[in-house]
Specification:
193 residues, single chain, 3-stranded mixed beta sheet, two-stranded antiparallel sheet, alpha/beta, elongated, 2 domains, DNA polymerase, domain 1
């Protein structure tokens, strides 16, 4: 076997690296094809695609309250509350959509509660009782009604929620300035993720 010159070794090495990169990209693309999207069959006309696999590009949310099909749904990361409501069949006739921040980004494990109009237009849960306020969808006015949260803290919670793509747990509130352990304990009964 003849000896290779330094230039030939460099050229063959570059070709080998290029082939490895092309092969790795092909393998990654092949693995990604298992998470093909579909919209028509299960999106119920939502226009958005949903991943079939449970990869890190998905969030799982619980949609409850005044929607056509309450349940647990998988949506792509970056989806909004509006997408989750649409995925759950849309709002029911008595839904109080103005009480929900439909533009908020979803967080994995979040519960989206669409309140139902109660007597006189007051908000109530799907069961007709007033329930805990959902951190993922609450407005500043709703948060302000909870003991221990004033207008400034309510605005801070919404800002934190928007910056972090939602809140998956009530425990995340302790990262907000002004909410300490004592306040956290008093808030747990009135809040849900």
């Amino acid at each position: 076997m003849p000896e290779l010159s330094r230039t030939q070794v460099v050229v063959y090495g570059a070709i080998a690296v290029a082939l490895l990169l092309v092969g790795a990209r092909a393998i990654r693309a092949e693995g990604g094809s298992e998470s093909t999207s579909f919209a028509a069959s299960s999106g119920a006309g939502s226009g958005g695609g949903f991943s079939l696999s449970g990869q890190a590009s998905d969030v799982i949310v619980d949609v409850t309250g005044a929607v056509a099909r309450p349940g647990v749904y998988r949506l792509p990361v970056g989806s909004r509350v509006e997408d989750a409501i649409r995925r759950a069949g849309g709002p029911s006739a008595g839904a109080m959509l103005e009480a929900v921040n439909r533009a908020a980004r979803l967080a994995d494990g979040q519960q989206v509660v669409v309140p139902e109009r109660g007597p006189g237009g007051a908000f109530a849960t799907a069961g007709g009782e007033e329930g805990p306020v959902s951190l993922g969808t609450a407005t500043a006015e709703q948060l302000d009604t909870i003991d221990g949260i004033g207008p400034v803290t309510a605005a801070d919670i919404i800002e934190f929620r928007d910056q972090h793509g939602g809140l998956a747990s009530v425990d995340q509130l302790d990262q907000i300035s002004g909410i300490g352990p004592a306040t956290m304990e008093s808030l747990r009964a009135g809040l849900q993720p």
